[in-house]
Amino acid sequence: MMHRGVLDELQLQYHSLSLKEKEIADYIVQHKSSIQNINIRELADHTHSSTSTITRFCKKIHCDSFVDFKIRLSREAEKPSGDSNGFTQVQSLYNEIVNATADMMHQEDFENVVRMIKTAQRVQVYGLGSSGLSALEFKYRLMRMNITIDAMTDSHMMIRSAALLNENDLIIGLSNSGQTTEIIDALKIGKKNGAATISITNYNHTPLTDISDISLFTPSLHRMGDTHFINSQLAIIYVLDVLSMLLLNDEKLFRKR
Q1: Does residue 127 contact residue 151 with C-beta atoms inside 8 Å?
Q2: Are 43 and 21 a contacting pair, CB within 8 Å?
Q3: Which residues does 203 contact at the CB level (< 8 Å), separation at least 6?
Q4: Were 135 and a residue from 151, 183, 189, 255 both cysteine, which residue would form a disulfide, CB within 3.0 to 4.6 Å?
C-alpha cells in the first residue's frame, strides 16, 4: 500500500478526531505554509490547546511526533505564489487538486472496483446535486462500453432502484462529505439485498464509508484554502477518468465503445 501524505491522513482521519483535534486540523489547513516555522508550544497557544493534545493529534494522523509531522508537512505545503492573478490561481488550484487526488489513489482498490464493474449484472450510480452530474457522466461513458448501468439523481428513485437490486449488482455512491443521508439510505437498502457497494468520497470514518465494501478517496476543497467557485467535482471526475481508462484496457470493452 502506498504511503499517504500527511495532508491526506489529516483529511481522511478528520471525522475520527475529537472536537479540539479538529480545531487543530482546521488551523493547520489554514496556515499550512507557515506551520514549519513554529514549535509545538506556539501551536498549542494558537489553537488554545495543550502540547499533549497536539502530540495525540499527530499520532492519530500517523506521525511519530510533532517534529515528524512538520517535516512531512513541509514537503507537501506549497509556498504561496507572489503572482495572484486569476489565471495562475486557478492553474495552481487545479494542479493541487489533481496531484492530491493522484496521491490518494491506491491501485489495488481501483483494480478491484474495475473488476466489480465488469462482473456486475447491473451498475447503479447515485449522486445528488453536482455529484448527480458526475453520476450521469459516468453512466454515459459506461453505456458506450455496453455495460448495463443507470444513474440516479433523485432520492426517491435511488431508494426504489436499490430495493430491486440483488447480489449480482453494484452500487456506486458519490458524496464528497460522506454524510449525504439519501445516498447512505439507498446504499444501505442495496447492501441489505446483497448488492456490492462502492463510495467515492473525501473522508474516511463516515456513515458512507462504513457501509461501503471499497471507498475511493478524493481530496477535500477545504484543504485547498479559499477556493470560491472551483468545481467540487474535479477530483471525482479525475477518479472516474481513471476508472474509464482502466475499463478500456479490456479489448472487448474498447471495441464496443
Answers
A1: yes
A2: no
A3: 11, 12, 14, 15, 177, 178, 209, 217, 220
A4: 151
Dihedral sign, CA of 128, 178, 218, 244?
negative
3-state secondary structure of 190: helix
Query: Residues 6 or more apart from 235 whose CB is under 8 A from it?
Result: 97, 100, 101, 218, 219
- 172-220: pLDDT as tens digits: 999 999 999 999 999 999 999 999 999 999 999 999 999 999 999 999 8
Cell of 85: 492573478
Residue 236 corresponds to which cell in the numbers above? 471525482
Instruction: List the helix and strand counts (H, then E) for the chain.
Output: 13, 5
Angle between helix 51-60 and helix 66-76 axes, rounded to 10 deg: 60
SS3 content of the chain, % helix, strand, coil (to 5): 60, 10, 35
The SS3 call for residue 89 is helix
Specify whether the backbone of 57 is left (phi greater than 0), alpha (psi in -120 to 50) or beta. Answer: alpha
* H or E element, residue 2: none
Q: Report the b/e string of 146-177 with b at 16+ CB within 10 A.
A: ebebbbbbebeebbebbeebeeebbbbbbbbe
Question: What grid cell was written down for 123?
Answer: 451498475
Strand ranges of the sheet holding 122-126, from the earlier edge strand across to the other edge: 149-152, 122-126, 169-174, 196-201, 214-217
Q: What are phi and psi of 199, to 5 degrees?
A: -125, 145
